[in-house]
Amino acid sequence: MSTAVETAHAEVKRIPLTGLRGAIARNMSQGWQAPRVAMWAEVDVTACQLKRARLMTEHPGFKVTLTAFVLRALALTLREHPHLNALMRDKEVELVDDINLALAVSVPGGLMAPVIRQADNLSVLELAAESRWLAEGARNGSLGAGVFQRGTFTVTNLGMTDIDGFSPVINPPQVAILGVSRVIDKPVVRHGGIVAAPLMGLSLVFDHRAVDGYPAALFLGDLKRRLESAEEL
């Protein structure tokens, strides 16, 4: 009897949907309303890892992550696929010239997405420095409101977790988002033999009102090839 009474009078814990949590709830609800399609690809990041090691040798003490290579490859690929670098407006799709990548950052109590402006004009080293500065600023609350505006495409990275793939929610009014999963060694066929290679998961989610499946698939394929060759990165 006492157990039932204690359960009945147990304090209910609630998290109000206000402030940052409320903003996230409203934004994600709006993003979920889009007719969204998801595509997945695995990317062999051997070439990126080799280039990353070389850059860190050439620049001692400077931390270069694979995320910087993803950002560089993504920005260059968006140049060639402008319909993914776009915003959904009332009864029209606005194609944006500037490639402004929003980088989702986990912060206490929620998620924030500061923006790297004109990311296609930045090198891997510059993107590494900019993304680190923005992530630190988002977590310690030192960024101004303007840093979170004018994003044209969002990247969300769960590569530090054990997740092999996921389907992120579009950040409206943008028309697409890229999810990045962990790198894990898997068997692949090379030159007729089976070897272990580091594979990274990429998931593209896009608004089907703005982009059809075939051009979206071409975009993801071009991004995969650019990362696997590490050319221009």
Kindly describe this structure.
The protein is of the alpha+beta class and 233 residues long. The protein has one domain: 2-Layer Sandwich (Chloramphenicol Acetyltransferase). Helices cover 36% and strands 27% of the residues. It contains 6 helices and 10 strands; from the N terminus they run ααβααββββββαβββα. The protein has helices spanning 2-8, 19-32, 46-58, 66-80, 124-140, 213-229; strands at residues 36-44, 86-89, 92-95, 101-103, 105-107, 110-112, 115-116, 153-157, 176-190, 193-207. The protein has a 6-stranded mixed β-sheet with strand order 1-10-9-8-4-7. A two-stranded antiparallel ribbon has the order 2-3. It has a two-stranded antiparallel sheet with strand order 5-6. β2 and β3 (92-95) form a beta hairpin. It is globular, with a radius of gyration of 20 Å. InterPro entries: 2-oxoacid_DH_actylTfrase, 2-oxoacid_DH_E2_comp, CAT-like_dom_sf. It holds the Pfam family 2-oxoacid_dh. This is Dihydrolipoyllysine-residue (2-methylpropanoyl)transferase. Its EC number is 2.3.1.168. Keywords: Acyltransferase, Transferase.
